[in-house]
Amino acid sequence: MATRLLSRGAGVACDVVTVSPGALAPQELDAHRRELTAYCYRMLGSGFDAEDAVQETLVRAWKASDSFEGRSSARSWLYRIATNVCLDMLRARQRRARPMELGPSRPPVGSSLEAVLPEGSWVSPIADDRVLPLEADPAELAEERESIRLAFVAALQHLPARQRAVLVLCEVLRWQASEVAELLDTSVPAVNSALQRARATLSTLDTGPSQPAMDDGQRRLLARYVEAFERFDIDELVGLLHEDAVQSMPPYAMWLQGADDIGRFMLGPGHACRGSKLVPVQANGSPAFAHYKPSPDGGYTPWAIMVVEISGDRISGIHSFLDVDRLFPAFGVPLELPA
Predict the structure, then answer these.
(1) CA distances from residue 283 to 119, 125, 237, 304 in whole angstroms, order as listed
(2) Rounded Cα distance, 6 and 31, in Å
(3) Which string of DSSP letters, residue by residue, matches 94-147?
(4) Which tens digit of pLDDT belongs to each residue from 175-217?
(5) Which of 328, 324, 285 lies closest to 153 in space, CA to CA?
(6) Is the pLDDT of residue 12 over 50?
(7) In the chain, at which end, N or C, are there fewer CB atoms within 10 A of the end residue's CB?
């Protein structure tokens, strides 16, 4: 018997798994980690849950790899295991959502930060480099980005778990209905029926504006946003927003709608953001930033991963996620910045 070390990615503990000689090589299975993470993220709506699901998938695959008979590709076999892991995880969990789905917008006052969402109830972000293919043509990459947008992933969570799997496999990954039927141990008519129902449900939901690759004008818009935010020029910042722009800040239940309310919030409860620094990252196929607030002791402390949505020539959404102890390592950014 040969012992292998099973990597779980940066900042995550490792498992030691014993594999029989002649089994599928661990590196052969691990080569699918990125695409499996993207699949599990669409299914589960959480980057952390997706990483856990992929790890469980690869552990199960490594333990059973000596019994893999090759009747299907290793990739199909892994997707079957990953689907079962996700379905098991979803049986015991409530639907993840965005704050905009969980209640009305709040006025921009101090009390708006009192209500906190239950742990695990919101769709959380994921770093692009965990899920997007390293080598892809521009058209394929654009489709991949669209399929991990926060609003689209949140819309997927409205679907029953098996419908969700069918839609992602057929519509996003372009599997044939016959392949999906084999994976789910069902019939082609059942797959086609589930796909039709899933499409009908999605057509009634707000999946948000698409996020194509930014053009020069939008890059200038984003640069102006960063400059206004760091200078705390709220008049300039508000002028860059759509009139009906939204701002959310999980785990707070509070969300705001309207450029004026966002501006009032920044001058009120958000005044502690004065003097902040924004470090560019990439999340959910969208521009994003690691947001650091100034520390009383000098330097800067982490506050949020901020995902910015752009529609046309204005910013339409600002979504800050405050789980810094887990998110900052997952995005590969430091937990403090020097002065």
Answers:
(1) 21, 6, 21, 13
(2) 12
(3) PPPB-GGGSS----SSGGGGS-BPPTT-B----BHHHHS-SS--HHHHHHHHHT
(4) 999 999 999 999 999 999 999 999 999 999 988 777 777 899 9
(5) 285
(6) no
(7) N
